[in-house]
Amino acid sequence: MDGESAMIIILSHQFLDFDALAAMAAAQKLCPEAVLVIDGKYSSYVQEFLSLAKEQLPYYRFKDIDVDKVEKIILVDTQEIERSIGNKKLMDRLRTIPIEIIDHHPVVEPDGQNQIIEMVGACTTILVEQIQQRGINLTSFDATLMALGIYDDTGSLLFANTTPRDLLAAAYLVEEGAELAVMAEYLQRPLTSEQKDLFQQLLDNGVIEKYDEMPVFISYAESREYFSGLALLAHRIGEFENAEIFFLVVKMEDRVYLVGRARGGSSLPLNEIVQAFGGGGHEKAASAVIKNGNIDSIIRLLREEIKLRAEKPTTIRDIMSYPVKTVFPDTSIEEVGKMLLKYGHTGLPVVQDEKLVGIISRRDVDKALKHGLQHAPVKGFMTRDVITVQPDLSWEEVQKLMVLHDIGRIPVVENEILTGIVSRSDVMRLIYGSVVPTLNELARDRSIARREEILRHIAGLPQYIQDDLAVIREAASEMGNQVYLVGGFVRDLLMNMPNNDLDIVVEGNGIELGRILSKKLTCDKLVLHASFGTASLIFCNGTHLDIASTRREDYDFPGALPVVEESTLREDLLRRDFTINAMALCLNEDSFGDIIDYYGGFRDLQQKEIRFLHNLSFIDDPTRMLRAIKFAVRYEFKLAKVTADAIPIALKEAVFAKISAERFTEELILIYKEAKFQRMGRELIRNGIFKAWFKADYAWNFEEAESVGEQRSLTERWLISLKNLDSNEISAVLDRLTLPKSLKRITLEYLRLKQALKLEDLTDLKNLDELLAGVPLLLFNILGSDDAYTDSLKKYRLLREGIQMKTTGKDLRQSGVREGPEIGSILKQIRLAWLEGKIRTPDEEKRYLEILLEKNDRADCIDNKPI
Predict the structure, then answer these.
(1) I need a labelling partner for 788 at 20 to 30 A (CA). Which of 344, 437, 685, 728 fits?
(2) Is-contact 325 347, C-beta < 8 A?
(3) Are 411 and 320 in contact (CB under 8 A)?
(4) Neighbours of 802 (CB within 10 A)
(5) Distance separating alpha carbons of residues 451 and 490, to the nearest angstrom
């Protein structure tokens, strides 16, 4: 390095691991004029790698460089220059040089230096992100080394300190050519002798302590020298110890390293605990470095911090589903089978006098049905020896029972009464978070996290809606009932889309709430439906507010109107069509803005999916198939696979046979009112819905450009979609629908004209004019869009627009023409003469009229034939 001018060097800690080495290489990519200086100890794996990579990764030792020429130091994977230099004299010389620090460990001493410190799994991740942003090219060797660094420090992306940024950086490196096979050779190695010694200390010194019934593993160890790999040891400890939370306190040299890890359903915020020691991280993985710390005092403070934040662990009562769908011992096998299919359950508890007497599984029901025993009572097939749990049992104990007995649902019994049921999904949600729909109290708890966002959306609503919500909140307080906004308004609020129609559900008397609000909001009209427990408030601005008591709907047969019963909010939301429409927003003062999402509607909004709520949804109400397509196209969503697969199954069962033409027509008209109605129409055809309803595969026209279609009126949209159908097909379509009178009337007129044009000589202007003279422009334009008539009608229209006829019946009477058919005949002849080009100006019309009147006087009658 002799002869060089000022230089920049890149350093890391002396006990070099792959993350430190990879971070140094990445830093050099960002600063090519800098050189790597490696001086210290490193593991045999790093030494082996460096030996093989001398040409691709040149580096120097301090003895090879002129320290006096160093003008800047880039320090990676550590914040302390002391960790990089073993020679005190050399360290004192370099301490005065400007240092740029890039690290992912907690801040040791904030001193205002040029620092980039971010809590990610690997230091290399921070630098790879910068490389990607700058578009710097990487060789396969570069990508492999950097990926190796990320994988090494995150335990192949499995350690709890791994962040999404680490995964994205690793994915980028694989795209850039990282060789996974090479990485595997260096990653699949046993612990070093130093790591083994420390690991054994941690196992020997560790104890499990309970804080409010929550088990926490705490251990300590000590080493005279510093070496990396605590994250690996923390991961290994987790494999040995039966605790969801563990803290390791390790002293190396003059530093104490505190590492915390949590897994499963733990609610203890580790990041808040380590903040007391100047550290950081996130709820499941956090760490701190304490300079000149004492192990005993640190553990004592650690215990105090845990006590302050420890909460009682989650029990079965917290995660179980309730109320439970049950059957009685005398319920028929056939009815049980229908319930299992409808709700997607694999079994149902059998109760008598609220006490659990057995369980009937889907498998046993299927066997009974196969043998023709559909009318037999379930008591002859149920399992009587049922494994149950108490509601105060820990979720870990239930998990063991599920694994031991290979069962997915366990009834929860308290004082011999069935109070709930806990499933594998409930346990999985607790461990891994809400990745599947939630069916219990935790839905309410999780919704609070979204409350601030919801309140911001509400604050952006029109003022009159905010005022209405305040009045509803006041009325709910007066009644002492829970009141919720539900359905489309909540969906569109979460999507930040306008929707001015409010749907309210009250866990109480909907009629009473309707009466109270009609007085407070001074609506124009109040409509009550006592049999359904609903009320509608209609306002002069065209908006309306619908109120209902929480209710459950059952269908006696496919397509039937629902049988309504009082129920809980959960069951009320279950009766709705799709998950995105089955969310509720609480309006009560104490929980205003909380979202109740039992069935994963928020998840489906994020994943842009339309998903029904149970397997018999399209059987219960076949018009939901139309709505599924409407919502999917309107919001640019897709149908969830289970929902899409259910459409052909429902159509095969001929479910449309039992719904009225009025209900189908109502849903169809709503689709024609949508901006994207043409795409919806194409989807209805593609899914076989039109063919199933209209009993034929007609050539519907939904092919106009969307920009054109959006500008058309409902009537135009409807008639344009029929333009490829012949007269018989249009008649058949009308027979299957119950259109509004005005729409049916103009459709029949369109049909009449279409039939007449088919029979007409389109070059005969007289007949053509008699047919089309009084036709509204809307109909004329739609007829003209038919390729068979386009040219002729376009020519006729141009001729018709050129008519400047001035003569009227009054003019003829004043000229002496007798009242009667002669007047109409003369006017028709003048109009035809304009069309045929015999008249081109008003003066020519006057002369033509004089000739006609002269003939009329001479013959005392008018010849009806045109002149």
Answers:
(1) 685
(2) no
(3) no
(4) 12
(5) 13
810 token code pair: 């009054």
pLDDT tens profile 423-438: 887 787 676 543 333 3
Q: CB of 258 within 8 A of CB of 288?
A: yes
Token code pair at residue 707: 């920009």
Higher per-residue pLDDT: 442 or 783? 783
Cβ count near 202 (within 10 Å): 24
Are 640 and 610 a contacting pair, CB within 8 Å? yes
What burial class does residue 18 get, using C-beta atoms within 10 Å of its C-beta: 0-12 exposed, 13-18 middle, 19+ buried?
buried
- pLDDT score, position 2: 53
Distance CA(394)–CA(497), nearest Å, equals 43
Please enumerate in sequence order all residues whose Cβ is within 8 A of that of 631, keeping only pairs 6 or more positions apart, or say none. Answer: 578, 580, 610, 637
Contacts of 491-500 with CB under 8 Å at 24 or more apart are 491/580, 491/581, 491/583, 491/601, 491/605, 493/454, 493/457, 493/458, 493/461, 493/585, 494/454, 494/457, 494/583, 494/595, 494/602, 494/605, 495/605, 495/635, 496/457, 496/460, 500/462, 500/465, 500/543
Mind listing the pLDDT tens digit for each residue in 388-412? Answer: 999 988 777 888 888 887 788 899 9
Residue spans of beta strands (DSSP E) within 592-649: 595-596, 609-610, 638-639
Q: For residue 544, how far is the Cα from the chain centroid?
A: 28
Q: Do the beta carbons of residue 244 and residue 266 sit within 8 Å? A: yes
- CA trace torsion 410, 415, 420, 422 (10° rounding): -30
CA–CA distance, 13 with 108 (Å, rounded to integer): 15
| Sign of the dihedral defined by the CA atoms of residues 86, 87, 92, 94, in that order | negative
Task: Classify residue 665 by burial, with Cβ atoms within 10 Å: 0-12, 13-18, 19+.
Answer: middle
- Indicate whether 202 pLDDT > 90: yes
Sign of CA dihedral 211, 213, 216, 219: positive
What are the two backbone dihedrals, phi and then psi, of residue 270, each rounded to the nearest 5 degrees? -65, -35
Cβ–Cβ < 8 Å for 725, 700: yes
Max CA separation in the chain (angstroms) = 135
Q: What are residue 387's DSSP bridge partners?
A: none
Write the CA distances from 146 to 16, 106, 122, 123, 706, integer angstroms.
Answer: 14, 22, 10, 10, 49
Dist. CA 623–CA 616, nearest whole Å:
13
β pairing state of 417-423 and 502-506: unpaired
Residue with tokens 């009159």: 464
Query: What does the angle CA 759 – CA 762 – CA 763 come to, to the nearest 5 degrees?
Result: 140
- The closest of 514, 516, 509 to 527, measured between CA atoms, is 514
Nearest-Å Rg of the Cα atoms of the chain is 40
Predicted confidence (pLDDT) per residue in 647-659, tens digit: 998 898 888 988 9
- Residue 68: CB atoms within 10 Å: 8
Closest by CA position to 481, among listed 409, 552, 569: 569
